[in-house]
Amino acid sequence: MNKKYVKLGISILLDLLGFFTIIPIDIVWAPISGYIMTKMYKGNEGKIAGVVSFLEEIIPFSDVIPTFTIMWFYTYVFSKKDKHDKKSTTIKV
């Protein structure tokens, strides 16, 4: 299975986990969510997404926003990053 689809599955699971957390648990989950986002998605985009993920989890009733899945779509569907990843893994003979 392609790594990007594994990352999609993990993103969906993390969004579901965040959706089902209750307010007292959100205080603990919010920084963890932001940290995981920065580790899953590198660079400035990952840092910004980490802050957004933290805010989405810490603000009451905003847990319905699937930030991890949105970031996956941004990275692999709407951005050119995936095409650059493929170029860097090809071997020139």
Structure in words:
The protein is an all-alpha fold and 93 residues long. It has a domain at 18-79. Helices cover 77% and strands 0% of the residues. The protein has helices spanning 3-19, 23-40, 43-58, 67-78, 81-89. Helix 1 (3-19) runs antiparallel to helix 4 (67-78) and helix 2 packs antiparallel against helix 3 (43-58). The relative contact order is 0.16.
What is the N-to-C succession of helices and strands? HHHHH
- C-alpha geometry: globular
Enumerate how many helices there are, as a single number: 5
Structural class by sheet pairing and helices? mainly alpha
- Assess the beta-strand content as a share of residues: under 5%
Summarize model confidence as the mean pLDDT.
Answer: 85
Largest sheet data? none
N- and C-termini, Cα separation: 26 Å
**What is the helix fraction of residues, given as a range?**
over 70%
Tally of DSSP β-strands: 0
In brief, what are we looking at here?
The protein is mostly helical.
